[in-house]
Structure formats: C-alpha cells, structure tokens
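Sequence in, structure out.
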Amino acid sequence: MGMMEDAKETVQTAAKEAGRHIEDGIDRVKDKVDEIKADAAVKKAEAERESVAMRNEAKERMRD
C-alpha cells in the first residue's frame, strides 16, 4: 500500500500546486482588468477636460 499512498500524496500535491497556479493566474487577470479600467477612466476624464476647454473657448470667442 506504500506505493499507492505515495501516488495519492503526489497527486494531491500536484492538484494543490495547480490550484495555486490557477488562483495566481486569476489574480493577474483581475489586476490587468483593474488597470485597463483605470486607464479608460483617465482617458475619459482627459477627453471631458478637453471638451470643456473647447466649449469654454467657443463661448469666449462668441463674447468678443
């Protein structure tokens, strides 16, 4: 039975290690998604800032 128990332990260890690798991969993907969302929010804010500046310039020209 020693060989079967060794094999069982090996399989369990491999399964745990695989589980850890999968969790690490999931965490990396979540981190990347968060990064992409943050970049998109920055780009949106910059676009809004430019839009407001252009609108204010147009209003200023109309006042002259």
